[in-house]
Each structure stands twice: as C-alpha cells, then as structure tokens.
Design goal:
0% strand; globular
Length: 81
C-alpha cells in the first residue's frame, strides 16, 4: 500500500518518499538485497546533500543521526533492549 494513501499527495516530501519506496520495491523484486538498497540510497542522498549544502553542513547533520537512531526515530517497531 502506498505511503501516501489517505494523505495530501501534493506534499512534495510525501511524493519523493513514495518514489523512493517504489524504486526500493523494484530493486528488491529484481533480487537486490535490502541492505544493498539501503547503502545505495544513503550514498546517493549523501552525495546530493554534499553537492547542495557542502561537506561541513552534511557532516554536522550526520553527527546528529547517531542520537536520533538511538532514540528510535528510524525504528518501525520498538526493539527490546
């Protein structure tokens, strides 16, 4: 089910996410391992962000990711630690 079902599809962020998720599904359906899709997505995102905002800004953003990951911001299910 598309992530945008029932949501405002005029939102560019949601449209972009739906495009990425569709490409991800196509990659998995063609046999690409999910972790390889993840690494490729991170690489593509980081190179674009560096081009747009510069290395210092992206490095600062990347440093903030550790805490956000630890707080569960990117977890779809709560882990049992």
């Amino acid at each position: 089910m598309p992530i945008s079902d029932g949501l405002d599809t005029s939102d560019d962020t949601l449209r972009a996410l739906q495009l990425i998720l569709t490409a991800w599904d196509e990659g998995e359906e063609s046999g690409v391992a999910p972790e390889l899709m993840a690494y490729a997505a991170i690489f593509a995102a980081m190179t674009d962000l560096v081009t747009l905002f510069g290395e210092d800004a992206v490095a600062k953003m990347a440093r903030s990711l550790e805490r956000r990951v630890q707080l569960g911001e990117f977890s779809l299910q709560q882990s049992r630690h």
